[in-house]
Design goal:
This protein is of the alpha/beta class and 155 residues long. Helix content is 39%, strand content 15%. It contains five helices and five strands. Helix 3 runs parallel beside helix 5 and helix 4 runs parallel beside helix 5. The chain starts with 11 loop residues before the first strand and ends with a helix.
Length: 155
């Protein structure tokens, strides 16, 4: 797959859920092809570890471990040959968190635009609550509804 993907130099990709699995592989693949990445994750040690691994793919990239969403958003101006790897705190289960991240991203990306939006974040509970209904509700709220919520707020 990676061989068939064209160069993404000068492109900006937003990827949710990049701590493991398909989100991490998608982010790593786009990074290897030259894209700048904004990674939306919940703040966790796994997210920090993922950025550490992605950093090894991007030795020349400007890396921002965690953006402070309360600060004024930087205006991205992507230059050829320059990659940015930035981690943005966003919990798709929290509408307030999604709204705050989306407002910050709209300001930060207004000049260069977003080329790729990869809504990958999801939740999988390995321990099942006593109530099957509650378990199903949590999955439905945080998985498809979380991504849809993020997409709607973004636009």
């Amino acid at each position: 797959f990676e061989q068939k993907l064209p160069s993404m130099a000068g492109k900006l990709a937003i990827v949710t859920g990049t701590t493991t699995g398909t989100g991490f592989v998608a982010a790593r693949t786009m990074a290897r092809k030259g894209a700048s990445l904004l990674l939306l994750n919940r703040r966790s040690p796994r997210a920090d570890a993922a950025v550490g691994e992605l950093r090894s793919c991007l030795p020349e990239a400007q890396v921002v471990q965690w953006c402070n969403l309360d600060d004024k958003a930087p205006i991205f101006q992507l230059a050829p040959g320059k990659q940015v790897l930035m981690q943005v705190e966003c919990d798709l289960a929290s509408f307030q968190s999604v709204r705050k991240a989306a407002a910050w991203l709209r300001k930060a990306c207004r000049e260069c635009g977003v080329d790729v939006l990869c809504n990958n974040a999801g939740l999988y509970l390995r321990t099942f609550p006593r109530s099957g209904y509650r378990h199903t509700r949590v999955h439905c709220r945080d998985n498809p509804a979380g991504s849809l919520r993020g997409f709607c707020v973004w636009w």
